[in-house]
Write a structure and sequence with these properties.
alpha+beta, Creatine Amidinohydrolase, Chain A, domain 1, Creatine Amidinohydrolase, 3 domains, 6-stranded mixed sheet, 19 helices, globular, Creatinase_N, metal-binding, Creatin/AminoP/Spt16_N, metal ion binding, hydrolase
């Protein structure tokens, strides 16, 4: 298995052994997670693709990999086009591709623990048009040919203390129980790892960059619960924290437990629970209510303790990032820096806080053309020197007990061209427009997306990613249900207490990338004389925006005032945490335009 070509050949041979004419390989786990443990990185092992979203289909004579606009460049650099066709979503889908490429009578395999019920239905219907069928496998054929596949993590669970959570786990489960009673349901299946972490106030180290533990849970209408987790992950402190109302079982017993819910009315989330869960409930005779996981929305709406924790984490993180930006300003002109050395130095500044638990995702550290790769991941073979007359894009964040951070800054190394400054400023104008937005209660994120794109659109430009995603509280850096996007989501009404990113960008293939990202808190806004409840955003992230990259003549008076006011806040929040040359640099970086 020394090459990806060998792995593809081995998988095709295994499909023959399993009497299959194809197989679908998604990048997820049995919890429908975005970020997955090493044991579930099947797509990366098979293809070499290192992005965080994608799928593949393998047929006897052809294979295709499906990614969205964030990975258009990356997939071509990491996956061999001699063996794989590149397909873009949402322009196409696996179901549509299979309808066109599968042969009549084909048996296309899938792992029912890695797909939603809706996907299974869509693919089944598409294949039926070719006289082909979708077949659930008992053994995942990728696992069968992956000789050194890592075992799932055995890291211990840890208690997420009430001083960070703001609400104890018993109260959270009581709220879920009340919700179940209102729906005339007996129980809810929780399979999303961050929902379980939130509902039980536990965290883990089973997924890199995301502090969750591999587990399942069933919460009952009497506020008791069953938690399914590997026994070696438990300890006395966690058992005491969970209490007698939470029954502990081996994670391996979960599927059988679903089959034992005969006659019960059970809530399962069609977006977050895999097809296998629905199949087990059906087979066991449960009545299924297909409703959203009851932890999702309360998890997204942060309480006062979580908001205060986020602000403390953001202030701490902003100081670490500002120290890094000062370091870059001093060291980059000397030469010798690379994307990797810069990324390592930024992590060191965060570690110097003494409170960093982990990064919140792999740092995107890209200079020049690498910055144009939206979710670029630097490695030795792609590592570029940070040279003058370039843009350096760094998207990074930290996991702290009191909050999760995510921030992007684009830094002009030397003197940027007039075009670079113009496009940086168009992105900045969009960022400011969204930051200043005031909108009525009930507004969806998708309705705000155009605010960030309008100035780029006016110049015939755009970016192929959403403008904003939700962020967890010492949880997933990408958290739903709220989004600011015109595609792939954005239908959730925004509510006070939600945290989102504000991150418009622009990417010129082969030359440079630009993104300006802060986190924002949805808050209530009182409008004098207003007749409707209104909302707006409070900016939570504090680090300088590079004044050297701004074409100030393209900003109107209100936009210039926003930049100056923002930088004044940066100085007020971050300044007291710095001293000496770093403080002097910050004062200069935050000077009025």
């Amino acid at each position: 298995m020394s090459s990806y070509e060998d792995r593809l050949k081995a998988l095709r041979a295994q499909l023959v052994r399993q009497k299959l004419d194809g197989f679908v390989v998604p990048l997820t786990d049995e919890h429908m997670s975005e970020y997955v443990g090493a044991y579930a990185q099947r797509l990366a092992w098979l293809t070499g693709f290192q992005g965080s979203a994608g799928s593949a289909v393998v047929l006897p004579e052809e294979a295709a990999i499906f990614v969205d606009g964030r990975y258009t460049l990356q997939v071509r650099e990491q996956v061999d086009g001699a063996h794989w066709q590149y397909e873009s979503v949402p322009q196409t889908s696996i179901a549509a591709w299979l309808k066109d490429h599968a042969i009549e009578g084909a048996r296309i395999g899938y792992d029912s623990w890695l797909h939603t019920r809706a996907w299974v239905k869509q693919a089944t219907e598409a294949l039926a048009q070719k006289g082909a069928q979708l077949v659930a496998v008992d053994t995942n054929p990728v696992d069968a040919v992956w000789p050194d596949r890592p075992a799932p993590s055995d890291a211990k669970l840890v208690v997420h203390e009430d001083r960070y959570a703001g609400k104890n786990a018993a109260e959270k489960r009581a709220d879920i129980a009340d919700w179940l009673v209102s729906k005339k349901a007996d129980a809810a299946v929780l399979s999303a790892l961050d929902s379980i972490a939130w509902a039980f106030n536990i965290r883990g180290k089973d997924v890199e960059r995301t502090p969750v533990a591999l587990a399942y849970a069933i919460v009952h209408a009497d506020a008791t619960a069953d938690l399914y987790v590997a026994p070696e992950k438990m300890d006395e402190a966690v058992a005491k924290h969970l209490g007698n109302a939470v029954r502990i079982h081996d994670r391996a017993a979960f599927a059988d437990a679903l089959a034992d819910l005969k006659g019960k009315t059970v809530v399962a989330d069609p977006e977050r629970a895999v097809a296998a869960i629905f199949e087990a409930l059906d087979a066991g005779g449960a009545q299924i209510l297909s409703l959203r996981d009851p932890a999702v929305l309360p998890k997204a709406i942060k309480n006062d303790t979580e908001i205060a924790g986020h602000k403390a984490a953001q202030a701490r993180d902003g100081a670490a990032l500002s120290r890094f930006l000062h370091w870059i300003a001093v060291e980059a002109p000397k030469g010798g820096l690379t994307e990797l050395s810069a990324s390592d130095r930024l992590e060191a500044f965060r570690k110097d806080t003494g409170l960093l638990e982990d990064l919140s995702f792999d740092t995107i550290s890209g200079v020049g053309p690498n910055g144009a790769v939206v979710h670029y991941r630097v490695e030795e073979k792609t590592n570029r020197p940070i040279e003058t007359s370039s843009f350096y894009l760094v998207d990074s964040g930290g996991q702290y007990r009191d909050g999760t951070t995510d921030v992007t800054r684009t830094i002009a190394i030397g003197s940027p061209s007039e075009e670079m400054k113009q496009r940086f400023t168009l992105v900045l104008k969009g960022h400011i427009a969204l930051a200043r937005a005031v909108f009525p209660l009930g507004t969806r994120g998708g309705q705000l997306d155009v605010l960030a794109r309008q100035y780029l659109w006016a110049q015939g430009l755009d970016y192929a990613h959403g403008t904003g995603h939700g962020v967890g509280s010492f949880l997933s850096v990408h958290e739903g249900p709220q989004r600011i996007a015109t595609f792939g989501g954005g239908d959730e009404p925004l509510v006070a207490g939600m945290i989102l990113s504000n991150e418009p960008g622009y990417y010129k293939t082969g030359e440079y990338g630009i993104r300006i990202e802060n986190l924002v808190l949805v808050e209530e806004r009182a409008i004098a004389g207003g007749e409707k409840p209104m909302l707006g955003f409070e900016t939570l992230t504090f680090a300088p925006i590079d004044r050297n990259a701004i074409a100030t003549d393209l900003l109107d008076a209100g936009e210039r005032a926003w930049v100056d006011a923002y930088h004044a806040q940066v100085l007020a929040v971050v300044g007291p945490q710095l001293e000496g040359e770093a403080l002097a640099w910050l004062q200069s970086a935050c000077a009025p335009l």
